[in-house]
């Protein structure tokens, strides 16, 4: 007779209140948690949820100013000047899930937040949360901690403040991280997008002002890495607004929005625009262009207004709607029809721009045809190599499948057989593949895309990733550069980064490219082992291990045994995401424009210019030897 492992009874069924459920399953509401080091980390979602409510007020015609303050203690205050939350419903709106005005489509016709969840998630995931509303010279405030009321003003009091709402919160370290922090560059970028989507709205961050006059045209101008091939084309139809132009680079760059929400993963509206521009170019120029010829080098912003949008998650990064409103116009058809009609009118009225657009498409077509023979030979070579290619050790689960582990799919790009051997033996064969380079690859800066097909190693890499045609069928979610932490390893890292930035910038833009951090030292005694990623880590570990500390310096990945390596590429793998440079200011110099990708690559990967020589001379440092010195031994003995 078998005994059940667990008793399944009525007592096993539990009901959680709203705050308990949010705190137990925060990922359902805000996606990734994180400490603020990445722009998609949850603390930015909390800020976005608060600002979205302010934006909705502005869109409805109330309030032209939103003020944001972030202190060094990571406390956030957001003040708008809209109508203000009705004072009698302050508690319900901030602490009762599925409560809000946005279920009434007459009050908020095209709102971002529709589920009555966002502000409650901020409340539940904050160690301190205060909401205060001002209406008609009356005010009321309530304070919470982790969603629990700590103070309620109760009856409204008289005040002289202008109408609106003020929300103050501190993300809870218990839910996020003890060292959580807001990177102001990420917040600046968020506010820029809000300003581009709402011309006339003024947003302030710690006194710094963000506003836009020309909306999406300003967005495209800011994101262009070089002068456009023709002036930005702007289309403004019913509930659909588009701005686009072409650059000289490769790939496609899209910024898509629904009701002012930045849908970073695109969705229905992006797919419809991509289809529409190809359709119109074919009809206008009376030629059946290939879609890639029309869209290569395209940079576009697409904004749509939808009455009740359906997003694929609470974080609203991808639109899944098929209708403009309940039982209304088909969203895809409406976008296509609007873009085709308005773009046709535009091209007929602007013959010079129409000519420039045609020249870009024909240039793309010419280049594609020039490399078609090379492409065919490269594909045939790759097909033959698949059976014998020892440079790629594939995994079982890929990003272009529907497997629940698809997000974990990773390809490590390593230098030489020694490093790849350690990773191969210690990897997870389900989700981690390895591509081994033969040594230093070619510096491809300034070369045409033909080199992707002419250079066997580059093509085999593109083929392994499945991006030689486009990145829509990318086979790995994370592409990780795993090189030694020495001069040669750094050089190889730069050469591969140049390859992606030059020919596949969408890979970097979409956040798929990373650098693997591995330890420089192992410090251990008979009881404990510490892996150290810096000299400071090593010093601390030596003090803990005492005079019998054994120090090993890893000078290459191949020196790390497979048994140890599995810890460095497991669930706690340390990755640094490679990000596109922000071209509009930084925390240190908010008004300074950063260099474009082309300028950066020219400086660091172009010909050896005096400018680069001076940069090296000015920044040259002589590091002290990091081996275990006599002084270190004395410190360890003293400990």
Can you walk through the features of this model?
The protein is built from 22 helices and 23 strands. Strand 20 (521-524) and strand 21 form a beta hairpin. By secondary structure, the protein is an alpha+beta fold. Mean pLDDT is 81; it is low at 100-109, 585-594 and 635-639. Helix 8 packs parallel to helix 10 (331-349) and helix 18 (535-545) packs across helix 22 (630-638). The protein has 4 domains: 18-210, Heat Shock Protein 90 (2-Layer Sandwich), CATH 3.30.565.10; 216-370, 2-Layer Sandwich (Ribosomal Protein S5, domain 2), CATH 3.30.230; 372-514, 3-Layer(aba) Sandwich (Rossmann fold), CATH 3.40.50; 521-619, no CATH class. The termini are far apart. 37% of the residues lie in helices and 18% in strands.
Write the layout of secondary structure elements.
Blueprint: H1 18-24, H2 27-30, H3 42-59, E1 65-70, E2 76-80, H4 90-95, H5 118-124, E3 126-135, E4 138-145, E5 148-152, E6 157-158, E7 164-171, H6 184-197, E8 202-205, E9 208-210, H7 216-223, E10 233-237, E11 240-246, E12 253-258, E13 261-262, H8 268-285, H9 291-295, E14 298-304, H10 331-349, H11 351-370, H12 372-388, E15 392-393, E16 410-415, H13 416-426, E17 432-437, H14 450-454, H15 456-465, E18 478-482, H16 487-503, H17 505-509, E19 513-516, E20 521-524, E21 529-532, H18 535-545, E22 550-553, H19 562-568, E23 575-577, H20 597-605, H21 610-619, H22 630-638
Parallel strand pairs: 1-8, 12-14, 16-17, 16-18, 18-19
Antiparallel strand pairs: 1-2, 2-7, 3-4, 3-7, 4-5, 4-6, 8-9, 10-11, 11-14, 12-13, 15-17, 19-23, 20-21, 20-22
């Amino acid at each position: 007779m078998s005994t059940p492992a667990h008793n399944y009874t009525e007592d096993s069924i539990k009901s959680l209140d709203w705050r308990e459920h949010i705190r137990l399953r925060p990922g359902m509401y805000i996606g990734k948690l994180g400490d603020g080091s990445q722009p998609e980390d949850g603390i930015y979602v909390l800020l976005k949820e608060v600002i979205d409510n302010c934006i909705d007020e502005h869109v409805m015609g109330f309030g032209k100013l939103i003020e944001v303050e972030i202190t060094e203690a990571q406390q956030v205050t957001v003040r708008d000047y809209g109508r203000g939350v009705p004072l009698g419903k302050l508690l319900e709106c901030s602490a009762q899930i599925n409560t809000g005005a946005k279920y009434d489509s007459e009050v908020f016709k095209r709102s971002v937040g529709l589920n009555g969840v966002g502000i409650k998630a901020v409340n539940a995931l904050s160690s301190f949360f205060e909401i205060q509303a001002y209406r008609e010279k009356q005010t009321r405030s309530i304070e919470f901690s982790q969603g629990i009321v700590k103070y309620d003003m109760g009856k409204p009091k008289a005040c002289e403040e202008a109408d609106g709402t003020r929300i103050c919160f501190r993300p809870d370290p218990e839910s996020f991280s003890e060292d959580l922090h807001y990177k102001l560059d990420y917040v600046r970028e968020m506010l820029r997008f809000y300003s581009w989507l709402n011309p006339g709205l003024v947003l302030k961050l710690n006194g710094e002002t963000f506003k836009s006059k020309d909306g999406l045209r300003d967005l495209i101008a800011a994101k262009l890495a070089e002068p456009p091939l023709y002036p930005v084309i702007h289309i403004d139809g019913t509930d659909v607004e588009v701005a686009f132009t072409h650059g000289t680079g490769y790939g496609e760059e899209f910024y898509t929005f629904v009701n002012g929400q930045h849908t970073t993963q695109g969705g229905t509206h992006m797919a419809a625009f991509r289809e529409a521009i190809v359709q119109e170019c074919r009809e206008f120029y009376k030629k059946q262009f290939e879609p890639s010829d029309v869209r290569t080098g395209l940079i576009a912003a697409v904004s749509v207004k939808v009455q009740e949008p359906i997003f694929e998650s609470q974080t609203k990064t991808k639109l899944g709607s098929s209708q403009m409103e309940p039982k209304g116009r088909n969203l895809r058809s409406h976008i296509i029809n609007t873009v085709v009609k308005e773009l046709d009118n535009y091209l007929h009225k602007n013959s010079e721009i129409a000519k420039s657009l045609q020249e870009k498409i024909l240039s793309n077509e010419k280049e594609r045809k020039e490399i078609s023979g090379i492409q065919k030979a490269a594909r045939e070579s790759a097909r033959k190599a698949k059976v014998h290619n020892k440079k790629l050790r594939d995994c079982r689960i890929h990003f272009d499948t529907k497997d629940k582990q698809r997000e974990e799919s990773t390809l490590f790009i390593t230098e030489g057989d020694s490093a790849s051997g350690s990773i191969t033996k210690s990897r997870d064969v389900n989700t981690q593949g390895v591509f081994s380079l033969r040594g230093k690859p070619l510096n491809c800066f300034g070369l045409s895309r033909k080199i992707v097909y002419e250079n066997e190693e580059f093509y085999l890499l593109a083929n392994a990733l499945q991006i030689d045609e486009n990145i829509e069928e990318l086979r790995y979610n994370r592409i990780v550069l795993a090189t030694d932490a020495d001069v040669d390893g750094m050089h190889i890292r730069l050469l591969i980064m140049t390859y992606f930035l030059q020919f596949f910038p969408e890979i970097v833009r979409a956040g798929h490219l990373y650098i693997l951090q591995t330890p420089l030292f192992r410090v251990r005694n008979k009881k404990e082992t510490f892996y150290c990623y810096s000299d400071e880590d090593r010093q601390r570990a030596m003090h803990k291990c005492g005079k019998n500390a054994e120090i090993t310096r890893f000078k290459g990945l191949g020196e790390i045994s497979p048994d140890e390596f599995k810890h460095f590429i497991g669930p706690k793998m340390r990755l640094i995401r490679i990000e596109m440079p922000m071209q509009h200011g930084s925390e240190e110099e908010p008004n300074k424009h950063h260099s474009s990708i082309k300028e950066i690559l020219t400086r660091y990967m172009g010909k050896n210019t005096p400018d680069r020589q001076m940069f090296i001379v000015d920044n040259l440092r002589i590091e002290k030897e990091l081996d275990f010195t006599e002084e270190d031994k004395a410190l360890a003995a003293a400990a």
